[in-house]
């Protein structure tokens, strides 16, 4: 153990503002490493189980997750069930939401043999890592985390719970416990990743090298809006869920907000509704949105909706069929999580041993 003192607040402001540009450049380098030597990295990513997954998740993160798995990178997926109670008081159907998101991911192509799913609440070792990690994080740093602030605001919370305030530190435990080196995230999660990097660095500075500082892997995923032009979200009832039927999808897309201009054009700033349907179609067919717009031309929003709906239903047909098969087979999808919990507990226990040795608390 070294005697270096590490004040949580000292000389790290520049780290917290490590620019988006740096993360983008790092991401490109990591992508190249993954192509040449996937065994060098371990991916950890996750979701909070607040409801079934939708097209925003599919294009924003799930496709990328499957791609990384297929590239041969060891992948962990945390089901962040404790995060559900950071910003809401009632959490009455967590287990069924967990089932839904597992089904969605298996149907997308995630393979529980190669990718490990685990529930945060099932791994007590994560909570043990929290205490030393908390000692390396200042209250001021937690209070200025922009993602925590935004989440509190979005949930209409005036008085932060200790759990929400410390959530970035829990997330650091999720990542570091399994030795994650790469964390695929959207921009909103960058501050959390910076917090994880700081914790890893400060721990190593104080106690000797145990943790590898993980990098964000920023995806260039386009943001798909909900059918009302707001962020796509289950609670706003504006989402096309992966589990919806073709008919439900048709009804939803029919109700999408467009505009009164007959000629279809791709113009996200001035025509968000029309452009969003073009983007969704484009993501399903791999054609440029402008090309799709040109083809529809003067046929108007009705035709655009028909085209978008066919594209989505066709794109999701295989996934939905696989999803229906799990249900029909009565497959116990929670077994996937139970198996993953066992694997992750073994790894987290090993990591905790190393932490105890570094801290000199082995008795
Ligand atoms: N906070 C993430 C979200 O809201 C979910 C999450 C929890 C996570 N732990 C994580 C993501 C660790 C990446 C790494 O979506």
From TrEMBL:
<keyword id="KW-0547">Nucleotide-binding</keyword>
<keyword id="KW-0030">Aminoacyl-tRNA synthetase</keyword>
<keyword id="KW-0648">Protein biosynthesis</keyword>
<keyword id="KW-0067">ATP-binding</keyword>
<dbReference type="InterPro" id="IPR050203">
    <property type="entry name" value="Trp-tRNA_synthetase"/>
</dbReference>
<dbReference type="Pfam" id="PF00579">
    <property type="entry name" value="tRNA-synt_1b"/>
</dbReference>
<dbReference type="InterPro" id="IPR002305">
    <property type="entry name" value="aa-tRNA-synth_Ic"/>
</dbReference>
<dbReference type="InterPro" id="IPR002306">
    <property type="entry name" value="Trp-tRNA-ligase"/>
</dbReference>
<dbReference type="GO" id="GO:0005737">
    <property type="term" value="C:cytoplasm"/>
</dbReference>
<dbReference type="GO" id="GO:0006436">
    <property type="term" value="P:tryptophanyl-tRNA aminoacylation"/>
</dbReference>
<comment type="similarity">
    <text>Belongs to the class-I aminoacyl-tRNA synthetase family.</text>
</comment>
<keyword id="KW-0436">Ligase</keyword>
<protein>
    <recommendedName>
        <fullName>Tryptophan--tRNA ligase</fullName>
        <ecNumber>6.1.1.2</ecNumber>
    </recommendedName>
</protein>
<dbReference type="InterPro" id="IPR014729">
    <property type="entry name" value="Rossmann-like_a/b/a_fold"/>
</dbReference>
<dbReference type="InterPro" id="IPR001412">
    <property type="entry name" value="aa-tRNA-synth_I_CS"/>
</dbReference>
<dbReference type="GO" id="GO:0004830">
    <property type="term" value="F:tryptophan-tRNA ligase activity"/>
</dbReference>
<dbReference type="GO" id="GO:0005524">
    <property type="term" value="F:ATP binding"/>
</dbReference>
């Amino acid at each position: 153990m070294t005697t270096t003192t590490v004040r949580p607040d000292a000389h790290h402001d520049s780290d917290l503002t490590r620019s988006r540009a740096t993360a983008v450049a790092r991401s490109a380098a990591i992508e190249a490493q993954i192509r040449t030597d996937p065994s060098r990295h371990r991916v950890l990513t996750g979701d909070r189980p607040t409801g079934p997954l939708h097209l925003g998740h599919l294009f924003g993160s799930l496709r990328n997750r499957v791609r990384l798995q297929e590239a041969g990178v060891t992948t962990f997926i945390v089901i962040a069930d404790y995060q559900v109670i950071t910003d809401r008081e009632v959490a009455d159907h967590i287990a069924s939401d967990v089932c839904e998101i597992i089904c969605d991911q298996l149907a997308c192509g995630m393979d529980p043999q190669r990718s490990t799913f685990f529930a945060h609440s099932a791994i007590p070792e994560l909570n043990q890592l929290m205490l030393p990690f908390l000692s390396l994080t200042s209250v001021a740093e937690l209070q200025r985390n922009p993602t925590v602030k935004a989440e509190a605001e979005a949930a209409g919370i005036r008085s932060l719970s200790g759990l929400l305030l410390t959530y970035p530190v829990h997330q650091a435990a999720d990542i570091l416990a399994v030795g994650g080196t790469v964390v695929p995230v959207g921009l909103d999660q960058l501050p959390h990743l910076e917090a994880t990097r700081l914790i890893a660095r400060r721990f190593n500075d104080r106690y000797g090298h145990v943790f590898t500082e993980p990098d964000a892997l920023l995806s260039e995923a386009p943001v798909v809006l909900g059918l009302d032009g707001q962020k796509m979200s289950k609670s706003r009832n504006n989402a096309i869920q992966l589990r919806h039927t073709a008919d439900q999808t048709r009804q939803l897309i029919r109700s999408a907000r467009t505009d009164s201009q007959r000629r279809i054009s791709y113009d996200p700033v001035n025509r968000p509704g029309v452009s969003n349907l073009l983007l969704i179609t484009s993501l399903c067919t791999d054609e440029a949105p402008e090309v799709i717009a040109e083809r529809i031309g003067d046929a108007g929003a009705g035709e655009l909706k028909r085209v978008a709906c066919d594209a989505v239903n066709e794109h999701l047909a295989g996934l939905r069929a696989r999803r229906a098969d799990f249900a029909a087979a009565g497959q116990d999808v929670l077994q996937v999580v139970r198996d993953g919990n066992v694997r992750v507990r073994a790894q987290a226990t090993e990591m905790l041993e190393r932490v105890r040795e570094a801290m000199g608390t082995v008795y």
